[in-house]
Amino acid sequence: MNRLSSWANNISESPTLIVDAKAKKLKAEGKDVCGFGAGEPDFDTPDFIKRACKEAIDAGRTKYIASSGLPELREALADMYMNRKGLKNLKASNIVVSPGGKYSCYLAIMAVVSPGDEVIIPAPYWVSYPEMVKLAGGKPVIVKAGDDTDFKISVEQLKEACTEKTKLIILNSPSNPTGSVYSKEELEEIMKFVVEKNLLVMSDEIYSFLTYDGFVSCSPASISEEAWQHSIVVSGFSKAYSMTGWRLGTLTAPDDIAKAVANLQSQTTSNATSFAQFGALAALQNPVEAKAALDAMLKVFDKRRLMLWEGLNAIDGVSCRRAKGAFYLFPNISKFGMSSSDFCAKLLEEELVAIVPGVAFGADENIRFSYAVADSTIEKGLERMARFCSKL
What is the CA radius of gyration of the chain? Predict the structure, then answer.
């Protein structure tokens, strides 16, 4: 008898967490590892956010709350989406606060994807999207975008991939793993197609406030009222506010989808941690302090981005696009004639540099670096990477 369900048998372990665990194990053994696998800011949560959480605990705000989230937090999120992202006529009932941005993605997919439905996922993709679609009984349809298009898919590719079974398209801008950002004009074209075909888009905007070179990320839900009615926006507090361990995600959707998501959450997790939500509320209610913390983090990230980008492109055989968002670079290593898994395994074994193979993101020609690491790690890692590549 197979003791595991078909869902459990069909799911893969997160490759990014595998790399991070290997790096931590080697470090625990005393090895000098340069780890570029982590997908979290190496900054502490701002003090004013931590203070608000502590005050909530001291005030006894540690009980169950509404499944969809703290009412005042949902109101503040609705205001933020209208004022900063250009969405219109949002209500608190359109917002669901979940235990993490990852769970918001899962809830969105579970709410709209039925067994047999097809979901178009641009590759490179975040590792969990295909697995979540499979858990819902859907079929991931992978559409490849390469370095030549800055890892962004076109409407023509969507038309080719779309069938009568297509239900959902997943967009992630700024992107993990590539750092690419869709322009407003590109999203207008995509959303025109989505509306015409009566499809849905799940827009993962967890990195939306982490952009560089003057770029401002645009939400597809802000394109038009029609576009909003076909959109589910997922995000959270992990990246922009350096709150990864707090596990607070958000989901914004039209009435029917938001209600379905709220029902799903009520039967699975009840509510996201109550007192943590008071910290998130402080992040939204103190925009001056929040912006100061974000700007300081962005300044450091931008310096590291350029340092790593220039260093990678200086290595013979490596080519790397200049990412415009998030905190990742996704260099191409195909000239070495190795799979990304073999490349990363040998690099870790021979030079103690831990990076994530691109095959985990549906792009075996590339590898992912996170620059949410110290400058010294970048310098040392580039030196080791150059030495490794010179021997191939």
Answer: 21
One-letter amino acid for residue 329 of the chain = L
Peptide bond into 140 cis (omega under 30): no
Pairing mode of beta strands 231-236, 200-204: parallel
Tens of pLDDT along 286-330? 999 999 999 999 999 999 999 999 999 999 999 999 999 999 999
For residue 40, which phi and psi values (nearest 5 degrees)? -145, 145
* pTM for this entry: 0.95
* 98 bridge partner residues: 249
Grouping H, G, I as helix, E, B as strand and the rest as coil, residue 96 is strand
The separation between CA 195 and the C-alpha centre of its own chain, rounded to angstroms, equals: 24
Q: With beta carbons less than 8 A apart as the criterion, state whether 371 and 305 touch.
A: yes
Instruction: Give the whole-angstrom CA distance, residue 133 versus residue 333.
Output: 29
CA distance 173 to 221: 13
DSSP assignment string, 236-270: ESTTTTT-GGG--EEEE--HHHHHHHHHHHHTTTS
Extended beta strands in 194-230, E state:
200-204
Give kind and range of the element (H or E) at residue 162.
none
Q: What is the DSSP string of 97-130?
A: EES-HHHHHHHHHHHH--TT-EEEEEES--THHH
3-class secondary-structure state, position 211 = strand
Both tokens assigned to 143:
């559409």
Q: Are 327 and 370 a contacting pair, CB within 8 Å?
A: yes
Cα dihedral value 278, 279, 281, 282, nearest 10? 120
C-beta pairs of 50-54 under 8 Å, 24+ apart in sequence: 50/279, 51/282, 52/278, 52/279, 52/281, 52/282, 53/275, 53/276, 53/278, 53/279, 53/282
What's 176's DSSP letter? T
Task: State whether residue 84 is helix, strand or coil.
Answer: helix
* 138-189 pLDDT, tens digit each: 999 999 999 999 999 999 999 999 999 999 999 999 999 999 999 999 999 9
**Residue of 163, 164, 157, 167 lying closest to 190 (CA atoms):** 157
Q: What angle do CA 333, 335, 337 make, to 5 degrees?
A: 95
Name the residue with tokens 């645009």.
218
